[in-house]
Amino acid sequence: MTDVRSADPAVAATPAPGAGPESGRAGRGAGLRAGAGAALPAVGLLIALAVWWLTARLELIHPAALPPPGEVLTAFVDKPVQMLGHTWDTMLEILYGFALSVAAGVLLGLSLASSRTVERMFTPLLVAVNAVPKITLGPLLVVAFGWGQTPILTMVFLLCFFPIVLSTATGLTTTPADLAELVRSWNASRWQAFRKVRFPAALPQIFVGLKVAMPLAAIGAVIGEFQAGESGLGYVITQYAGVGDTATAWAAIMLVALVSILLYSALLLTERLALPWVRETTSSR
Question: Start and end of every ABC transmembrane type-1 domain (predicted)?
């Protein structure tokens, strides 16, 4: 029998692919880049806080209009339960209004993409509605719906609706030519083409509209609370700014920004989980 130990030592000593020092260095480099990327938002926040503190310290803006960051933090610490309760109310209004906008916007976008007649009929109307400054509609919404959540959700809906409709219609009408030709070669039905090709290909564009609409939802909720709110961060801003407590008003503004960042980040995570192939085929970042 042949002794297996007599095999060529050069072959036995050959390292496995990807097991060399270059691979280790590449892995460490990727880890460092990932850690640096995670730290960059914190660095940006520290820079913004430093600029804010310096501006307040030098009184480049009157302290009544822009209190120092320390006073804003103290205003939140003095009443955390109250502030968090209003934050929860505003976040729910953002989510409910955004969900309504997504449902209606995607459906209307589908209608515009499927029929030239519908597109020509409603596109000018959509553009006209979108061009109206939404804050001017606030008092009219209060007259129409009274106080409470209904006018606030309507304001969120009006701000978010148009970008979702536009992105959905654009995505469904710009299916890549090679995919469209592939569907025709299969002799697929319209439903099969929509389910297997057109809608999946449109999802990246739809998510662009969703990412545009999410911050607008926060703006709409705060504007609605200015006009018709009985709670929420917009209500806090108007009440405390009206009595000169601008530190608490700024604490509410910071909470609006924090809620917007969290919801936008959740949307980005949803996009990555739902469309993992997009990053692999369109970007190396």
Answer: 87-271
Contact (CB, 8 A) for 153 and 223: no
Predicted confidence at residue 147, as pLDDT, reads 84
Cβ contacts of residue 74 below 8 Å, gap of 6+? 247
Annotate 27-45 with b (16+ C-beta within 10 A) or e (fewer): eeeeeeeeeeeeeeeeeee
Our CA angle for 256, 237, 225, nearest 5°, is 75
Predicted local distance difference test score (pLDDT) of residue 278: 73
First to last CA, the chain: 55
Q: How many CB atoms lie within 10 A of CB 224?
A: 34
96-275 to CATH, choices 3.40.50.300, 1.10.3720.10, 2.40.10.240, 3.40.50.10490: 1.10.3720.10
Q: What are phi and psi of 186, to 5 degrees?
A: -80, -10
Tokens representing 59?
Answer: 């009184």
Structure tokens at 10: 């050069």
170 within 8 A of 206, measured Cβ to Cβ: no
Helix axes 246-274, 80-114, angle to 10 degrees: 40
pTM for the model: 0.80
Cβ–Cβ under 8 Å, residues 223 and 235: no
- d(CA 201, CA 181) in angstroms, rounded, equals 14
Domain boundaries, the chain: 96-275
Residues 37-62: pLDDT tens digits? 567 878 888 888 888 888 888 888 88
